[in-house]
Write a structure and sequence with these properties.
182 residues; alpha+beta; four-stranded antiparallel β-sheet; 45% helix; 26% strand; rod-shaped
Length: 182
Amino acid sequence: MITYYDDRSVQVTSTTVRVDGRSYPLAELTTVWHRRGERSWRVLAGRGAIGAALAGPLVTAVLGIGLAVWLQRSAVVTIAIVGVSVLIGLAVGPVADFLFEYLDRSYARGSREMEMWADWRGRPVRLLHTRDAMKFGQIYRAVQRAMESLPAAPRRTAPGPAAPGQNVIGSSGSRPSPRSRP
């Protein structure tokens, strides 16, 4: 038996898909497809807030320098305002690494609910749902590889066209129609 994916809640082997304690033998799955839900505006707003947090100190520094020039005060006051503005601008440096890492993780997690469905014993069953795009992709690819490793059986036929918003893995693991993307 080959294990393609294994974590606390999901295990994909060459014979079975186990999700949250439920087992689905691969030989009984005829079609596997996935659906993407609507975008989460909360996630997108969070990404925008990170961008604003990154730009805030830099904008403050530029405004401070502009203010120092506009006020036309003595050289000491102008240098003090410019110095403080530059220090505020430099404050973004240490914080930027943390914010960029958080932003990167946000994109890895994704902004949509992802669902994996399968025809099991003649009826559609939702195998998995998650907002973690990276985990979903790993699990979906593991199921695809597991289905490709199954011996071909006459009763396992490729599905018909998928409904809009669905992508399908046929019994051979291939899509029923060619993709137009490179």
